């Protein structure tokens, strides 16, 4: 066996630049610039390997010998010391990577896919509110089904929708951790769901106004305030509130309103925007809203930005109505089914829903605009004429300073 421990601490201090063997494959490299490093030469099978062990300033002679002995033992067992050392470093890194750190990185990676870059916080908030306060400081590799079950149990039945979103986000975070090379259980979320059992929560639908009552309500929106006008346009177009609230004059050309894809829910990542045919009544509402235009938006808030998502809902609530603005989409769809012979595909496309399979949508080159235009004109006629006299929108008055109408 080759001689070991050829060097000593005192000898090392007096050696000139060069490479010196301590025996057993352990070498010291003294550079001319004054630097000095330990390295180990090993033969694994027929392959010669050389690995650095660190600087003399950081690793003592004794520590270098201990490391060399450990790596020689691994080599004798057929394990590549460099591969094994890198694996241990990754595992140590995984133990240090907390769930909160990986969640923040996963969120950053998805921001480009989220509306407005995720600034609204809706994607991250289920994690931030219900998961990270208790699990955020734990190493992501330590997250298992039991820890997830324990943190989800308080909201699993009481706040089922929030729990579902939190689980969905957590699953994405765990997959992101796996993509980083961290050791995680990709089945932990599904296992936690099995431990929690089926949710007892019964989903409730957003209250919708019966379509027969829509004309009377529409007729009551006669004050010409921003809230009244926004509700009228919401009803006439059967859109969700976001496109209406963020409606800009430069999105409207003639009788076509082109809603950007990023504002339409469920259309994220699609190339095409959504074209909305405007009825004569809808155009009249838009004309009546123009005096309120600020920065291009016709339904601006009295202070800053556009009216909030709750503005229209609060108006209906103050009037003692159970139904809510989003429910007018249901009113419209039910009217299509019960009072017309509108083909389901056209009715669904009028709501901005995806129709048909992914393959069918890929080959479809029309949005049936003309047929939808006729349908929306007929809906507007029902909404206006079904409620009695047509209400003139010519004398619109400005919104009060508190933003309520």
UniProtKB/TrEMBL annotation:
Gene3D superfamilies: 1.10.150.130, Integrase, DNA-binding domain, Intergrase catalytic core
Keywords: DNA integration, DNA recombination, DNA-binding
Membrane-crossing residue ranges in chain numbering: none
Keyword GTP-binding: no
Pfam families: Arm-DNA-bind_3, Phage_int_M, Phage_integrase
PROSITE patterns given in the database record: TYR_RECOMBINASE
Domain of life: Bacteria
Domain Tyr recombinase: 204-376
SUPFAM superfamilies: DNA breaking-rejoining enzymes
InterPro entries: DNA_brk_join_enz, Integrase-like_cat_sf, Integrase_catalytic, Integrase_DNA-bd_sf, Integrase_DNA_bind_dom, Integrase_recombinase_N, Phage_int_M, Phage_Integrase
Gene Ontology terms describing biological process: DNA integration; DNA recombination
Sample GO molecular function, one term: DNA binding
Family of this protein: Belongs to the 'phage' integrase family.
Full protein name: Integrase arm-type DNA-binding domain-containing protein
């Amino acid at each position: 066996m080759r001689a070991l421990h050829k060097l000593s601490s005192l000898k090392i201090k007096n050696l000139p630049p060069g490479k010196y063997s301590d025996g057993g494959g352990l070498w010291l490299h003294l550079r001319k610039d004054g630097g000095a490093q330990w390295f180990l030469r090993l033969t694994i099978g027929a392959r010669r390997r050389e690995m650095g062990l660190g600087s003399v300033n950081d690793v003592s002679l004794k520590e270098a010998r201990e490391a060399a002995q450990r790596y020689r033992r691994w080599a004798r067992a057929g394990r590549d010391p460099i591969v094994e050392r890198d694996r241990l470093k990754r595992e140590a890194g995984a133990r240090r990577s907390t769930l909160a750190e990986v969640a923040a990185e996963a969120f950053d990676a998805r921001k480009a896919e989220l509306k407005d870059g995720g600034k609204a916080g809706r994607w991250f908030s289920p994690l931030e509110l219900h998961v990270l306060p208790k699990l955020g400081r734990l190493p992501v590799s330590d997250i298992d089904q039991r820890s997830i079950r324990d943190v989800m149990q308080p909201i699993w039945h009481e706040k089922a929708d929030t729990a579902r979103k939190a689980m969905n986000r957590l699953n994405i975070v765990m997959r992101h951790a796996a993509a980083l090379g961290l050791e995680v259980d990709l089945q932990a979320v599904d296992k936690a769901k099995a431990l929690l059992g089926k949710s007892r929560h019964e989903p409730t639908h957003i209250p919708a106004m019966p379509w027969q009552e829509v004309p009377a309500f529409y007729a009551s929106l006669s004050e010409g305030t921003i809230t009244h006008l926004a509700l009228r346009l919401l009803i006439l177009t059967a859109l969700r509130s976001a496109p209406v609230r963020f409606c800009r004059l430069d999105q409207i050309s003639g009788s076509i309103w082109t809603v950007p894809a990023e504002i339409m829910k469920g259309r994220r990542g699609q190339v095409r925007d959504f074209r909305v045919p405007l009825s004569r009544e809808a155009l009249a509402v838009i004309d009546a809203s123009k005096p309120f235009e600020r920065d291009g938006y016709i339904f601006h808030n009295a202070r800053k930005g556009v009216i909030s998502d709750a503005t229209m809902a609060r108006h209906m609530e103050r009037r003692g109505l159970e139904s809510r603005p989003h429910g007018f989409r249901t009113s419209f769809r039910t009217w299509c089914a019960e009072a017309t012979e509108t083909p389901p595909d056209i009715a669904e496309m009028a709501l901005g829903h995806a129709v048909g399979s992914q393959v069918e949508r890929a080959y479809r080159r029309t949005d049936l605009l003309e047929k939808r235009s006729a349908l929306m004109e007929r809906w507007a006629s029902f909404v206006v004429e079904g409620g009695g006299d047509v209400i003139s929108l010519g004398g619109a008055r400005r919104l009060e300073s508190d933003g309520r109408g």
